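note to self: dont lose this again. the chain is below, predicted strucutre after it. 130 aa total, dont forget to put it in the shared folder this time
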Amino acid sequence: MGKAESVDIILGILYALAAVMLFVVSYVYFIKRFKRNKMLAVNDVVLTTSRYDQYENKTQFLIELSKQLKITLRLLDDKEQEVAVLLDEELEPGENVVDFDPLNYQDGIYYLSLKTDGTSILRKISINKH
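---
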């Protein structure tokens, strides 16, 4: 094996290592950026209901926003058919309270459907007035 062949082998190994390093750095950068964007999307809207999601009296739902968003909050039946629109408006950042009176609905299983342009939340609730 001559000197030129040894240099070619060493350069080939160095090029391969550089390619692997470039791939690893690109992958790490992509993953960090993806996680950051995912966290921003997750943190834009938070819907808080009671601990047990079972209602028999008037209550309130809390919608926390990181920025101004148009929110649609619907009550759906057990087949996910719309029963009522509880809220359909642009809300300011921060805490927003929505009043809910289960006395207007029959006992049973329902869903809260919260939608914005970039978020969709579906939460199962139960109405039991006895």
